[in-house]
Amino acid sequence: MSGALLIWLGGAMAAFVAANTVLRAYAGSGAWPTLVLALGCFLVGNLMMVRLMRENGLALAVAVSSVVQLVALALIGVWWFGERLTGMQTAGVVLGVVAVTLIAWPQGTQG
Q1: What is the pLDDT of residues 53-109, one digit of tens each?
Q2: Structural domain includes residue 53
Q3: How many domains are there within the chain?
Q4: Which domain, by its residues, includes 79?
């Protein structure tokens, strides 16, 4: 994955994490402008993912993005919203980090 694509991946993940964080706020407030903001963030993230999938393939782009988002959202839930993780959930976050590392590890040339 090139540096430019890593930046696109980071942007897409940031958009999805922002969208889910805004949705969590919407769940507490019910204010429809908050929902519109979340949907806008999802739209931006999905448009960025289309480019990533076109240039890198579905498997790598979606796998890395999904796992990193899950880990980031778990941490945001703990730090920002005061939620608690059980031991099993904490182990899942750690395994998610390991999974992303293994998925994104450079494979070298294939042939």
Answers
A1: 888 777 777 887 888 888 888 888 899 888 899 999 999 889 988 987 887 776 665
A2: yes
A3: 1
A4: 3-104
